Amino acid sequence: MVGDPERRRRARHLGPERRRPLILDAALEVFSANGFAGTTMQSVADAAGVTKPVVYDSFANRDELLLALLAREEQHLVVSIVAALPADPSVGTPEEHVLEGLTAFLTAVSEQPQSWRIVFGAQYGAAPVVAERVRAARAFLVESLRLTLLQSLPGVADPDANLPILAELLASMTESCARMLVVDGTDRSPAELAKTVSQVVAGGFGNV
Fold first, then answer.
1. What's the pLDDT at 1?
2. HTH tetR-type domain: which residues (predicted)?
């Protein structure tokens, strides 16, 4: 990978702390193109236009590099998740919340494909500590959905009985739609995917 010439020039002349963001930029490109197995310290060094020892000056090993990259990209994803949740879940129906929120969320996903590729890809073949970081990010999504559903359905007699299940199912469908957009490829738009999901889950919400 050739990498950006200006970034390569700057990376060669910066100290480790200032160089880290540039190396992470290069790592994101490499990981997005080649996955976990194809992301090596050498391939990242090549993409950043520096020598491998320079990369090791910033990150002790590949797992540390990937964890730092996940932490950075997760910040983008958390912002997307929070922005997609309804400001007032008590206004409107759960189906409307799913349609509007998922459309906003999947639109953000389509605009940040590299961030999502690393989250999906890091689940496969990564060290346990990296995979655990990915699971924690997904747990945050499920809990956010559960709380939103709870506020959307104030009349539910026993919310703990069914809402966690619905939240998990909705999180799985959300994840599948995001994967279709950034990994598998689809000719469906974020709005079309969101509409399909909202129609599927509407019956489930109505029977809680």
1. 43
2. 17-77
Report the alpha-carbon distance of residue 23 to residue 16 in Å, rounded. Answer: 10
Q: Which of 127, 21, 4, 110 minimizes the C-alpha distance to 64?
A: 127
Buried residues in 47-74 as b, exposed as e (16+ CB within 10 A): bbbbeeebbeebbeebeebbbbbbebbb
What is d(CA 15, CA 143) in angstroms, rounded to the nearest whole number? 40
Alpha-helix runs per DSSP H in the chain? 5-12, 16-34, 41-48, 52-58, 62-84, 94-111, 113-121, 128-152, 159-179, 190-206
How sure is the predictor about 201, in pLDDT bands with cuts at 50, 70 and 90? confident
Which of 164, 158, 118 has the alpha carbon at shortest distance from 144? 164
Domains of the chain, each with CATH number or no CATH: 5-59 (1.10.10), 73-206 (1.10.357)
